[in-house]
Protein backbone atom coordinates (compact mmCIF):
# COMPACT_ATOMS: atom_id res chain seq x y z
CA UNK A 1 0.00 0.00 0.00
CA UNK A 2 1.07 3.55 -0.66
CA UNK A 3 2.64 4.68 2.65
CA UNK A 4 0.87 8.06 2.58
CA UNK A 5 -2.47 6.24 2.43
CA UNK A 6 -1.54 3.65 5.03
CA UNK A 7 -0.86 6.38 7.59
CA UNK A 8 -4.53 7.41 7.47
CA UNK A 9 -6.18 3.98 7.70
CA UNK A 10 -7.30 4.49 11.29
CA UNK A 11 -9.55 7.35 10.18
CA UNK A 12 -11.73 5.08 8.05
CA UNK A 13 -14.70 3.73 10.05
CA UNK A 14 -15.24 -0.02 10.16
CA UNK A 15 -18.79 -0.34 8.88
CA UNK A 16 -20.37 -3.51 7.54
CA UNK A 17 -23.63 -2.08 6.12
CA UNK A 18 -25.70 -4.29 8.43
CA UNK A 19 -27.66 -1.15 9.31
CA UNK A 20 -27.06 1.26 6.43
CA UNK A 21 -29.49 3.86 7.75
CA UNK A 22 -27.50 4.17 10.99
CA UNK A 23 -24.17 4.04 9.17
CA UNK A 24 -24.99 7.01 6.96
CA UNK A 25 -23.93 9.32 9.77
CA UNK A 26 -20.37 7.95 9.97
CA UNK A 27 -20.09 8.07 6.19
CA UNK A 28 -21.22 11.70 6.19
CA UNK A 29 -18.70 12.55 8.91
CA UNK A 30 -15.90 10.97 6.91
CA UNK A 31 -16.91 12.61 3.64
CA UNK A 32 -17.45 16.07 5.04
CA UNK A 33 -14.12 15.98 6.90
CA UNK A 34 -12.46 16.44 3.50
CA UNK A 35 -11.58 20.14 3.06
CA UNK A 36 -14.05 21.85 0.74
CA UNK A 37 -12.44 23.26 -2.41
CA UNK A 38 -12.65 26.87 -3.51
CA UNK A 39 -15.66 27.34 -5.78
CA UNK A 40 -14.68 30.86 -6.85
CA UNK A 41 -15.06 31.11 -10.60
CA UNK A 42 -18.05 28.81 -10.86
CA UNK A 43 -21.76 29.03 -10.16
CA UNK A 44 -23.14 26.47 -7.71
CA UNK A 45 -26.90 26.01 -7.75
CA UNK A 46 -29.28 23.52 -6.15
CA UNK A 47 -32.17 22.44 -8.36
CA UNK A 48 -34.88 19.78 -8.36
CA UNK A 49 -35.43 17.68 -11.46
CA UNK A 50 -39.20 17.22 -11.94
CA UNK A 51 -39.27 13.43 -12.16
CA UNK A 52 -41.16 11.18 -9.79
CA UNK A 53 -41.15 12.89 -6.40
CA UNK A 54 -38.36 15.18 -7.62
CA UNK A 55 -34.63 14.45 -7.83
CA UNK A 56 -32.35 16.94 -6.02
CA UNK A 57 -29.27 17.96 -8.00
CA UNK A 58 -26.46 20.43 -7.45
CA UNK A 59 -25.07 22.05 -10.59
CA UNK A 60 -21.47 23.26 -10.61
CA UNK A 61 -20.98 25.51 -13.62
CA UNK A 62 -17.48 26.84 -14.32
CA UNK A 63 -17.20 29.95 -16.46
CA UNK A 64 -17.47 28.98 -20.16
CA UNK A 65 -18.24 25.34 -19.47
CA UNK A 66 -18.40 23.54 -22.80
CA UNK A 67 -19.97 20.32 -21.63
CA UNK A 68 -21.33 18.59 -18.55
CA UNK A 69 -21.18 15.32 -16.67
CA UNK A 70 -24.15 13.80 -14.85
CA UNK A 71 -22.29 12.66 -11.74
CA UNK A 72 -23.37 9.86 -9.37
CA UNK A 73 -21.88 9.66 -5.88
CA UNK A 74 -20.52 6.57 -4.19
CA UNK A 75 -21.65 4.99 -0.94
CA UNK A 76 -22.66 1.45 -1.80
CA UNK A 77 -26.09 2.60 -3.09
CA UNK A 78 -27.11 3.11 0.55
CA UNK A 79 -25.12 6.19 1.66
CA UNK A 80 -24.23 9.59 0.28
CA UNK A 81 -25.94 12.78 -0.86
CA UNK A 82 -25.19 16.20 -2.33
CA UNK A 83 -23.28 17.27 0.78
CA UNK A 84 -21.02 14.22 1.02
CA UNK A 85 -20.20 14.55 -2.68
CA UNK A 86 -19.65 18.31 -2.58
CA UNK A 87 -15.82 18.23 -2.21
CA UNK A 88 -15.44 15.82 -5.11
CA UNK A 89 -18.01 17.36 -7.46
CA UNK A 90 -16.51 20.81 -6.96
CA UNK A 91 -12.97 19.53 -7.55
CA UNK A 92 -14.07 17.71 -10.70
CA UNK A 93 -15.72 20.85 -12.07
CA UNK A 94 -12.64 22.95 -11.31
CA UNK A 95 -10.21 20.42 -12.76
CA UNK A 96 -12.19 19.72 -15.93
CA UNK A 97 -13.82 23.04 -16.72
CA UNK A 98 -17.03 21.07 -17.31
CA UNK A 99 -20.34 21.56 -15.57
CA UNK A 100 -20.99 18.85 -13.00
CA UNK A 101 -24.59 17.85 -12.28
CA UNK A 102 -24.31 16.02 -8.96
CA UNK A 103 -27.32 13.74 -8.36
CA UNK A 104 -28.92 12.88 -5.00
CA UNK A 105 -30.49 9.65 -6.25
CA UNK A 106 -32.78 7.64 -4.00
CA UNK A 107 -30.97 5.29 -1.63
CA UNK A 108 -31.45 1.62 -0.86
CA UNK A 109 -32.67 -0.32 1.02
CA UNK A 110 -35.69 2.00 1.30
CA UNK A 111 -35.60 2.49 -2.47
CA UNK A 112 -34.02 -0.56 -4.14
CA UNK A 113 -33.18 -0.96 -7.82
CA UNK A 114 -34.25 0.52 -10.19
CA UNK A 115 -34.91 3.71 -8.19
CA UNK A 116 -31.34 5.07 -8.34
CA UNK A 117 -30.99 4.24 -12.04
CA UNK A 118 -34.37 5.80 -12.83
CA UNK A 119 -33.27 8.99 -11.06
CA UNK A 120 -29.97 9.06 -12.94
CA UNK A 121 -31.70 8.62 -16.29
CA UNK A 122 -34.28 11.29 -15.43
CA UNK A 123 -31.46 13.74 -14.67
CA UNK A 124 -29.69 12.79 -17.89
CA UNK A 125 -32.88 13.53 -19.87
CA UNK A 126 -33.35 16.81 -17.98
CA UNK A 127 -29.75 17.91 -18.52
CA UNK A 128 -29.95 17.20 -22.24
CA UNK A 129 -33.31 18.94 -22.59
CA UNK A 130 -32.29 22.02 -20.59
CA UNK A 131 -28.68 22.35 -21.66
CA UNK A 132 -29.11 25.83 -23.14
CA UNK A 133 -30.57 27.19 -19.92
CA UNK A 134 -27.96 25.37 -17.84
CA UNK A 135 -25.15 26.81 -19.97
CA UNK A 136 -23.55 23.88 -21.77
CA UNK A 137 -23.62 22.09 -25.12
CA UNK A 138 -26.26 19.28 -25.26
CA UNK A 139 -23.95 17.34 -27.58
CA UNK A 140 -21.24 17.28 -24.90
CA UNK A 141 -22.80 15.37 -22.02
CA UNK A 142 -21.04 12.58 -20.11
CA UNK A 143 -22.10 10.25 -17.32
CA UNK A 144 -19.82 9.28 -14.49
CA UNK A 145 -19.43 8.37 -10.87
CA UNK A 146 -17.51 6.72 -8.08
CA UNK A 147 -18.02 3.13 -6.90
CA UNK A 148 -21.78 2.42 -6.78
CA UNK A 149 -22.29 5.68 -8.68
CA UNK A 150 -19.93 4.43 -11.38
CA UNK A 151 -22.07 1.32 -11.75
CA UNK A 152 -25.20 3.46 -12.03
CA UNK A 153 -23.48 5.60 -14.67
CA UNK A 154 -22.53 2.51 -16.69
CA UNK A 155 -26.11 1.24 -16.40
CA UNK A 156 -27.45 4.61 -17.56
CA UNK A 157 -25.20 4.45 -20.62
CA UNK A 158 -26.53 0.99 -21.46
CA UNK A 159 -30.15 2.08 -21.02
CA UNK A 160 -29.64 5.23 -23.10
CA UNK A 161 -28.16 3.11 -25.88
CA UNK A 162 -30.99 0.58 -25.79
CA UNK A 163 -33.83 3.12 -25.48
CA UNK A 164 -32.40 5.71 -27.89
CA UNK A 165 -32.01 8.14 -25.03
CA UNK A 166 -29.93 11.33 -25.03
CA UNK A 167 -26.57 10.97 -26.76
CA UNK A 168 -23.80 10.41 -24.21
CA UNK A 169 -20.36 11.65 -25.17
CA UNK A 170 -18.30 9.81 -22.54
CA UNK A 171 -18.31 7.53 -19.49
CA UNK A 172 -16.10 8.47 -16.50
CA UNK A 173 -16.10 5.40 -14.26
CA UNK A 174 -14.03 5.52 -11.07
CA UNK A 175 -13.74 2.16 -9.29
CA UNK A 176 -17.25 1.24 -10.50
CA UNK A 177 -19.38 -1.53 -8.99
CA UNK A 178 -20.34 -3.58 -12.03
CA UNK A 179 -20.90 -7.23 -11.12
CA UNK A 180 -23.07 -8.63 -8.34
CA UNK A 181 -21.77 -12.17 -8.84
CA UNK A 182 -18.45 -11.54 -7.04
CA UNK A 183 -16.68 -14.28 -8.99
CA UNK A 184 -13.43 -12.48 -9.85
CA UNK A 185 -10.15 -13.13 -8.05
CA UNK A 186 -10.20 -9.75 -6.30
CA UNK A 187 -13.79 -10.20 -5.13
CA UNK A 188 -13.07 -13.67 -3.76
CA UNK A 189 -9.78 -12.82 -2.06
CA UNK A 190 -10.06 -9.25 -0.77
CA UNK A 191 -11.82 -10.12 2.48
CA UNK A 192 -10.04 -7.61 4.75
CA UNK A 193 -9.08 -4.70 2.52
CA UNK A 194 -9.61 -1.15 3.84
CA UNK A 195 -13.04 0.47 3.63
CA UNK A 196 -14.44 -2.01 1.08
CA UNK A 197 -14.13 -5.79 1.27
CA UNK A 198 -15.95 -8.86 -0.03
CA UNK A 199 -18.60 -9.03 2.69
CA UNK A 200 -19.35 -5.30 2.53
CA UNK A 201 -19.70 -5.48 -1.26
CA UNK A 202 -22.10 -8.43 -0.90
CA UNK A 203 -24.19 -6.52 1.65
CA UNK A 204 -24.33 -3.46 -0.60
CA UNK A 205 -25.57 -5.53 -3.54
CA UNK A 206 -28.26 -7.18 -1.35
CA UNK A 207 -29.55 -3.78 -0.24
CA UNK A 208 -29.47 -2.39 -3.78
CA UNK A 209 -31.12 -5.28 -5.57
CA UNK A 210 -33.68 -6.17 -2.91
CA UNK A 211 -35.91 -8.80 -4.50
CA UNK A 212 -35.23 -7.65 -8.07
CA UNK A 213 -33.18 -9.80 -10.47
CA UNK A 214 -29.76 -8.48 -11.43
CA UNK A 215 -30.30 -7.18 -14.96
CA UNK A 216 -27.62 -5.67 -17.19
CA UNK A 217 -28.73 -2.21 -16.11
CA UNK A 218 -28.26 -3.05 -12.41
CA UNK A 219 -25.01 -4.97 -12.93
CA UNK A 220 -23.51 -3.82 -16.25
CA UNK A 221 -20.99 -6.69 -16.32
CA UNK A 222 -23.98 -8.95 -17.08
CA UNK A 223 -24.62 -7.18 -20.40
CA UNK A 224 -23.88 -9.53 -23.27
CA UNK A 225 -23.46 -6.77 -25.87
CA UNK A 226 -21.32 -3.73 -25.06
CA UNK A 227 -21.11 -2.40 -28.60
CA UNK A 228 -22.30 1.10 -29.40
CA UNK A 229 -21.53 2.49 -25.95
CA UNK A 230 -19.72 5.81 -25.42
CA UNK A 231 -15.94 5.90 -24.99
CA UNK A 232 -14.89 5.31 -21.41
CA UNK A 233 -12.25 6.04 -18.83
CA UNK A 234 -12.12 3.37 -16.13
CA UNK A 235 -10.00 3.69 -13.00
CA UNK A 236 -9.42 0.80 -10.61
CA UNK A 237 -7.68 0.57 -7.24
CA UNK A 238 -5.14 -2.18 -6.60
CA UNK A 239 -6.54 -3.20 -3.19
CA UNK A 240 -10.22 -3.06 -4.14
CA UNK A 241 -12.65 -5.96 -4.57
CA UNK A 242 -13.99 -4.25 -7.72
CA UNK A 243 -10.54 -4.20 -9.33
CA UNK A 244 -10.77 -7.25 -11.57
CA UNK A 245 -14.33 -6.58 -12.77
CA UNK A 246 -13.23 -3.06 -13.70
CA UNK A 247 -10.35 -4.41 -15.77
CA UNK A 248 -12.54 -7.12 -17.34
CA UNK A 249 -15.22 -4.57 -18.27
CA UNK A 250 -12.60 -2.37 -19.91
CA UNK A 251 -11.33 -5.33 -21.92
CA UNK A 252 -14.84 -6.29 -23.03
CA UNK A 253 -15.58 -2.71 -24.10
CA UNK A 254 -12.41 -2.71 -26.17
CA UNK A 255 -13.37 -6.02 -27.77
CA UNK A 256 -16.77 -4.51 -28.61
CA UNK A 257 -15.11 -1.65 -30.45
CA UNK A 258 -15.46 0.97 -27.70
CA UNK A 259 -12.48 3.23 -27.05
CA UNK A 260 -11.27 2.85 -23.45
CA UNK A 261 -8.58 4.34 -21.25
CA UNK A 262 -7.85 2.12 -18.24
CA UNK A 263 -5.74 3.19 -15.26
CA UNK A 264 -5.03 0.69 -12.49
CA UNK A 265 -3.71 2.77 -9.58
CA UNK A 266 -0.96 0.93 -7.70
CA UNK A 267 -0.94 1.00 -3.92
CA UNK A 268 -4.45 2.43 -3.58
CA UNK A 269 -7.61 1.04 -2.01
CA UNK A 270 -11.30 1.63 -2.64
CA UNK A 271 -12.17 5.21 -1.71
CA UNK A 272 -8.62 6.18 -0.81
CA UNK A 273 -9.06 9.44 -2.72
CA UNK A 274 -10.80 10.60 0.48
CA UNK A 275 -7.23 11.26 1.65
CA UNK A 276 -6.59 14.26 -0.63
CA UNK A 277 -3.24 15.13 0.94
CA UNK A 278 -1.65 11.95 -0.49
CA UNK A 279 0.28 12.53 -3.69
CA UNK A 280 -1.38 9.58 -5.42
CA UNK A 281 -4.85 10.97 -4.57
CA UNK A 282 -3.90 14.33 -6.04
CA UNK A 283 -2.79 12.61 -9.25
CA UNK A 284 -6.02 10.61 -9.41
CA UNK A 285 -8.24 13.66 -8.99
CA UNK A 286 -6.21 15.68 -11.50
CA UNK A 287 -6.41 12.86 -14.03
CA UNK A 288 -10.20 12.55 -13.71
CA UNK A 289 -10.46 16.27 -14.46
CA UNK A 290 -8.02 16.16 -17.36
CA UNK A 291 -9.72 13.15 -18.94
CA UNK A 292 -13.15 14.75 -18.70
CA UNK A 293 -11.86 18.03 -20.13
CA UNK A 294 -10.33 16.23 -23.09
CA UNK A 295 -13.48 14.21 -23.74
CA UNK A 296 -15.88 17.16 -23.66
CA UNK A 297 -13.76 20.02 -25.00
CA UNK A 298 -12.09 18.16 -27.84
UniProtKB/TrEMBL annotation:
Protein name: Acetyl esterase/lipase
Source domain of life: Bacteria
Lineage, top ranks: Bacteria, Bacillati, Actinomycetota, Actinomycetes, Streptosporangiales
Molecular function per GO: hydrolase activity
Alpha/beta hydrolase fold-3 domain span: 69-272
Key words of the record: Hydrolase
UniProt entry tagged with the keyword Hydrolase: yes
One Pfam match: Abhydrolase_3
Amino acid sequence: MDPELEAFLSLFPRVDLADPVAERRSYAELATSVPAPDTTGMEVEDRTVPAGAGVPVRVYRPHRAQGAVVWLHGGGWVMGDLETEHPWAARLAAASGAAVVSVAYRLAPENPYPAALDDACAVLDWAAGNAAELGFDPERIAVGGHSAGGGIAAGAALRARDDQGPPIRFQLLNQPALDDRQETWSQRNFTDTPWMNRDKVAAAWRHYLGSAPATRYAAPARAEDLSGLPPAYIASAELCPNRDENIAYAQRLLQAGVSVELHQWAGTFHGSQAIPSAEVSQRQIAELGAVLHRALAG
